[in-house]
Each structure stands twice: as structure tokens, then as C-alpha cells.
Amino acid sequence: MRPPTWHSEHVTLTPVDALPSREVRVRAPGKVNLSLRVGARQPDGYHPVSTVFQAVSVYEEVVASPHEGILVTVGGPQSDAVPTDDSNLAVRAARLLAERTGVVDDVHLHLVKGVPVAGGMAGGSADAAAALVACDALWSTGLSRDDLARLAASLGADVPFLLTGHTAVGAGRGDLLTPALTRGEFHWAFAVRDQGLSTAAVYAAFDARHRDAPPPAPSDADDVPLMQALLAGDAVALGRALHNDLQPAALDLAPDLAEPLQVARDAGALGVVVSGSGPTVAALARNRQHALVVAAAFTAAGVADRVLTAVGPVAGARVVSNGD
Ligand code: ATP
Fold first, then answer.
1. Predicted confidence (pLDDT) per residue in 57-103, tens digit
2. What domains are defined for the chain?
3. Contact at 8 Å (CB) between 286 and 211?
4. Considering the entire predicted model, what is its pTM?
């Protein structure tokens, strides 16, 4: 249908709300921690970590378009579990960017969830990274990637990594990043559960385990074999080097996670680990075909609500389209 028009003597005007609305589409990946070493809880409540992140081809998509005020809508699997109020990390990212650049925070953010919710793959942080990039483009704030990285760090420890992607070592709370050199692609199968695990609860279980004997200070010195495996593109050595200090704590809260871990080993996975704070189980496969075999084994054994396969490393938050 043609939009209604106003007629004057010389020109025909189209009302503003009938103009095509600009839309910026950004994709950001989820992550798996190849290694996660956790130290003792500090007086400020945080735990120092030494971690090796890898961004994998399981994506969140954030579509930003003009709107009066901030509106967030969510689609995709498990979207019911995602808050649409001010606690949503994408909303926090948009507000922070507007505040720091002095623009009015008018935007509709539509999130398409591909990364498991509360699954230990940092889907919320990926949304925050994607929202920063999307609003920066929509509002033409023109911030540099370094400026965005500084904003990202104040939104959460995993957000800076999801902005850059690829593979990186994270120190501090995981936000002090050093890129890691890698060769080739690694293939993953993920066993996903509908019922997520709270990161805070997993850290509390970790603290309970270490009440009498505090854990050592986390150090990337323990990840030399892992870094060598990445550099050589040696998936067998990488599989042997996967490590997660939070895994026993996640198993305390969800003992049946032992099942997908065992199923992956039986299916010949090169290594298997709980991703971050869980409950997603990440299995490293020999190649793409083998990743499908491991995923099929998860399904056949009934140890996952959903399975995913992916490749890593991949790039961080990127604009995929910027137009009408
Ligand atoms: P991490 O490994 O970074 O701790 P996670 O992958 O385990 O995170 P997320 O899906 O990132 O978990 O989010 C955890 C919780 O954060 C959710 O249960 C939800 O209540 C809240 N949350 C806030 N914003 C979002 C968002 N955009 N997407 C998903 N969850 C969000």
C-alpha cells in the first residue's frame, strides 16, 4: 500500500514514520574456555582467573533500529529465560554507550539467541558486545575499537573478549586480554541443557570446596602445553590440555553432567570439558564429521536437551548489515 502523502504547491512530502527504517545487524559469537584457572575469592567478591578463551561459531544476533526510548525484544531458543528489563546486558550496553557519548538512547534492540542461556558460553556478554557495536553504528558515535573495549570491560569480564573474538588469554577477571597465536580450525560438539546454572552459584560451590585449603593463584604458566598445541594446530594435544577449575563445582550442583562428559569420551572426543560455569559440555572432535558423530552420540544417549556443533576460532562482534 502506498504511504499517505501531504501535498503542497510544489512538493510531495512523505511522513517520517513512513520512511524506511534503518537497521543495523551485528553478530557476536559465544565462547568456550579452553582453560579456566580460578584463584581464591578476593575481599571485593571477585575471583582472579587465568583463562584461555576461544570464540566459536555459535552466534547471537542483535538487530538495532530506531525507536523512541529503549525497547528490547528476544527471539530464538530459550528466549523466555532472558530478561527484557534494564538488567538485560544489551540494554546496559546501549545505555552506557549513550551516556558516554551524549547521544539520546533511542533504540529497538532485537536479540536472536543462538548461544545457550545461562550455559557458560557467555551469551549475555555476546549480546552486550554486539549491542555496543550495533548502537555505535546506528547512532554514528564513531568510537574507536579501543574506546568500545573500555566500555565493554565495565559491562562484564567476558565482554571485551567477545568484542575481539578469536583465541586469547584472559587475566585479572578475564578482561585483560592477550591474543593467542593459533593454527587452523578446531571442531566442537556441545551438549546443551535447558536448565542453566547460575555463575554465582557455581563460584559459591567452588568457594565451599576450597574453604579449608585455598586454591593457588591462577597462572598461565600452567597452560604452556595448551598454548603450544594451539600454535601447532594440534587438536590431539589441545584435547589433552583442556582444563576447568570450575568443573568439580559445576558437577557438585549438577552431578548428572558426568553423563555427557562420559558419552563424549566414549564417542572418541579428543578432550571434553564443562564450558565456563556450565552446564554446557564442550567436546573437542577430530574434524567436522567427527563433531557431528559426537553430537549424535549426545542425542542418542539422551544426555542433552539440544546439541550444537561449531568451529573455532572465529571473529568477535561484527556488523553483518547496515542499511534498510
Ligand atoms: P557467563 O558464562 O558469562 O557467566 P552464561 O553464558 O552462563 O554467562 P548468560 O546466558 O550470559 O549465561 O546469562 C546469564 C544470566 O544473565 C541469565 O540467566 C539472565 O538472567 C541474565 N541476562 C542478562 N542479559 C542477558 C542476555 N542478553 N541474554 C541472556 N541472559 C541475560
1. 999 999 999 999 999 999 988 888 999 999 999 999 999 999 999 99
2. 23-180 (3.30.230.10), 186-312 (3.30.70.890)
3. no
4. 0.91
Q: Which three cell numbers stand for residue 255?
A: 552431578
Looking only at the bridges linking them, the beta strands covering 107-112 and 70-75 are: parallel
Q: Quick check: CB of 127 below 6 Å from ligand 1?
A: yes
Distance CA 239, CA 283 (A): 8
Cα 111 to ligand 1 centroid, rounded to whole Å: 13
Q: How does residue 20 score in pLDDT terms, banded at 50, 70 and 90?
A: low
**Residues 107-126: pLDDT tens digits?**
999 999 999 998 999 999 99
Q: Does the beta carbon of 60 lie inside 6 Å of ligand 1?
A: no
What beta strand segments (E) does 81-154 contain? 107-112
Q: How far is the CA of 262 from the centre of ligand 1 (A)?
A: 27
